[in-house]
């Protein structure tokens, strides 16, 4: 074996260790992870108690944790408000005129909000919510493209105890409708359009179609970006600017019990129905605050750029709440990494002097395809800390990301989920890295790899990733479906089962290998196979459908569907296209299968359950394993 091959082989095995530079460690809040971690888990409640005191509370807690397995209450008896901590906490000191948000539009527009200005906008919006009669506990659906109003609306809801449900603006009308219905939202906030690679995406007609069937919706507020503005049907439809115009820029944040719901965020699971993950003010605030601070080593002079969309959990926790709780300067940009050219993000990093850059493996692989000449055109020397989220990052993409950004900036491969609210398994900047590994648990977090019965597995044996103790930002329930919440904690007794397959190496480093269930990750987006199947089956030509995730070079996974047609239907390119269009209409672009095979039958168990595992093994040319239960 040649030298290169040996190096490659050890890379694949995960032998390469990338140590932090002396400068990185010297600058870091946490310089000795092992010691701090041991201390944090020796008494997690004392640890979180100490951290929570870095934030402001209206009244203190009687107890840090009330753990009634599997139900948790954190900071029992305390009152607080996350919006107050994101804004008011900074307004009393020098951060009042510090830049909070720099927003760059796809068309190159720029909008800058200081903490003072952001607070004024949020307060106006909170007063406008009150003027509509919205009160604590009511739900508002926010269906906006990536524009600052999305952030303003979220914080305004939080300010008065209204629960927001942000829906990613790529979802189609039926998907939006089911989310509005489940939440029984009284208000929907939307925009006339979004932009995607200069294409105008009309959002208002999607909302019209969705809201037509939602009795709960009293008002639709529309941010009008295009000139002349589209017509609105008063009194139900209101222009955003008019809505805020008469409102005062002062609105006291309501002191809320720490366990008051902050938001619902719908995410895909193993059934066709998305789950409304519920997060609360107190614990979520503490968890997102601390992880943002320690994982990214966030300091007051940093410029923090996270490429997510607030429509997903990464946007909630690491564009909006975590960074604002820390008083950070946040850069957020509408649009794709390769539009108008593949230098887009590198250009923004240079232009704004970004020091912390948080992105996804899919985006890295996409930019890799365009070549190193793109990042080389720009001065990226302001970068200090890098991040990755949403799916496993393959060592090849890791090495590229590391090299083109200067070769010395640590990459924080952060593992977490919508349900966990905060990053749980992750390096800190001072921790030695292994490309492709999310390394070890965050402070105060206890995790393991176990078998089905909950027995911890020896090093290098693959099993299920579990979290063995409650943590402050954990979801509190699934909206209107507590039984579904219970499954996370009852699948393997006494621990939270994440649904990921994983192994730990000899150093206790976690290597995530993908989902153990029927959830697929396409470009980091979470999609349930059952959702795509039910969309396909609702097409008049389809009798049955099965969907699997298949490895894809850029997107991590791609959707592949197997479809049985109804009697009398025939395969044709038009029909295949028709099926794709149908999924587009039912769910949205992210859920459209890349490949559809028409098949005469599907492998099933005797009880009629489709064996996706067998389909997948066959597709990938692998051994399907035990197929004794198969019928056809
Ligand atoms: C996957 C996204 C490997 C994992 C924040 C998890 C990851 C699911 C990583 C949650 C990572 C997220 N390495 N896999 N660093 N980060 N995942 O709810 O399968 O959209 O269960 O939250 O993404 O997806 P969700």
Q: What's the pLDDT, averaged over the residues?
A: 95
Helix run count:
21
Gross CATH architecture of the largest domain: 3-Layer(aba) Sandwich
Please bin the fraction of helical residues. Answer: 25-40%
Number of domains as seen in the coordinates: 3
Sequence of strands across the biggest β-sheet: 12-11-8-6-7-14-15-23
- Mass-distribution shape: globular
How many strand segments?
30
- Structural class of the helix and strand makeup? alpha/beta
Poorly predicted runs are none
CATH topology of the largest domain: Rossmann fold
Name the beta content range. 15-25%
Kindly provide the name of the CATH class of the largest domain.
Answer: Alpha Beta
Name every ligand kind in the structure.
Answer: 5'-O-[(S)-ethoxy(hydroxy)phosphoryl]adenosine
Considering the protein shown, what is the CATH homologous superfamily of the largest domain? ANL, N-terminal domain
Rg from alpha-carbon coordinates? 24 Å
Give structural attributes.
632 residues; GMP Synthetase, Chain A, domain 3; 30 strands; Rossmann fold; alpha/beta; seven-stranded mixed beta sheet
């Amino acid at each position: 074996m040649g030298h290169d091959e040996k190096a490659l082989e050890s890379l694949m095995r995960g032998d390469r260790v990338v140590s932090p530079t002396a400068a990185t460690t010297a600058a870091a809040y946490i310089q000795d992870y092992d010691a701090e971690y041991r201390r944090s888990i020796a008494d997690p409640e004392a640890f979180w108690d100490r951290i929570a005191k870095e934030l402001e509370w209206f009244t203190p807690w009687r107890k840090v944790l009330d753990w009634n397995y599997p139900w948790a209450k954190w900071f029992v008896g305390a009152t607080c408000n996350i919006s107050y901590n994101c804004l008011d906490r900074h307004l009393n000191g020098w951060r009042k005129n510090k830049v909070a948000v720099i927003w760059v539009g796809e068309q190159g527009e720029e909008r800058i909000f200081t903490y003072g200005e952001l607070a004024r906008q949020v307060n106006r919006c909170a007063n406008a919510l009150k003027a509509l009669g919205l009160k604590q506990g009511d739900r508002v659906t926010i269906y906006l493209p990536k524009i600052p109003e999305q952030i303003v609306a979220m914080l305004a809801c939080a300010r008065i105890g209204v629960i927001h449900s942000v829906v990613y603006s790529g979802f189609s009308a039926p998907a939006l409708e089911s989310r509005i219905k489940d939440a029984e939202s009284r208000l929907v906030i939307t925009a006339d359009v979004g932009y995607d690679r200069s294409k105008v995406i009309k959002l208002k007609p999607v909302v019209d179609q969705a809201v037509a069937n939602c009795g709960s919706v009293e008002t639709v507020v529309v941010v009008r970006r295009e000139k002349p503005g589209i017509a609105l049907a008063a009194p139900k439809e209101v222009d955003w600017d008019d809505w805020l115009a008469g409102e005062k820029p002062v609105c006291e944040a309501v002191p809320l019990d720490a366990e008051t719901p902050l938001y619902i965020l719908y995410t895909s699971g193993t059934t066709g129905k998305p789950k409304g993950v519920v997060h609360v003010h107190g614990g979520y605030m503490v968890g997102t605050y601390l992880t943002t601070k320690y994982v990214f080593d966030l300091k007051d002079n940093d410029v923090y750029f996270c490429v997510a969309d607030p429509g997903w959990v990464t946007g909630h926790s690491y564009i909006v709440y975590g960074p604002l709780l820390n008083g950070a300067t946040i850069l957020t940009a509408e649009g794709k990494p390769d539009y108008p050219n593949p230098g887009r993000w590198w250009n923004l990093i240079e232009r704004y002097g970004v020091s912390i850059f948080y992105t996804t493996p899919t985006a890295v692989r996409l930019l890799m395809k365009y070549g190193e000449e793109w990042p080389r055109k720009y001065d990226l020397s302001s970068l200090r800390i890098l991040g990755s989220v949403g799916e496993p990052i393959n060592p090849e993409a890791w090495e590229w990301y590391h090299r083109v950004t200067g070769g010395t900036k640590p990459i924080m491969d952060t593992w977490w989920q919508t349900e966990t609210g905060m990053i749980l398994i992750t390096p800190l900047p001072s921790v030695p890295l292994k490309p492709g590994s999310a390394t070890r648990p965050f402070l105060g977090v206890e995790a393991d790899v176990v078998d089905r019965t909950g027995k911890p597995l020896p090093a290098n044996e693959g099993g299920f990733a579990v979290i063995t103790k409650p943590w402050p930002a954990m979801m509190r329930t699934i909206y209107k479906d507590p039984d579904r919440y219970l499954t996370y904690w009852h699948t393997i007794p006494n621990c939270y089962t994440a649904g990921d397959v994983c192994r730990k190496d000899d150093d206790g480093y976690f290597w995530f290998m993908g989902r153990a269930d029927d959830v697929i990750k396409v470009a980091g987006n979470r999609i349930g196979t059952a959702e795509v199947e039910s969309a396909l089956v609702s097409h008049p030509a389809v009798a049955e459908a099965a969907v699997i995730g298949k490895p894809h070079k850029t997107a991590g996974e791609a959707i592949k569907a197997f479809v049985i047609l109804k009697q009398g239907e025939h395969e044709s390119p038009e029909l295949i296209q028709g099926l794709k269009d149908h999924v587009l209409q039912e769910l949205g672009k992210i859920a459209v299968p890349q490949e559809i095979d028409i098949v005469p039958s599907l492998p099933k168990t005797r009880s009629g359950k489709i064996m996706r595992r067998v389909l997948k093994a066959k597709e990938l040319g692998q051994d399907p394993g035990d197929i004794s239960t198969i019928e056809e």
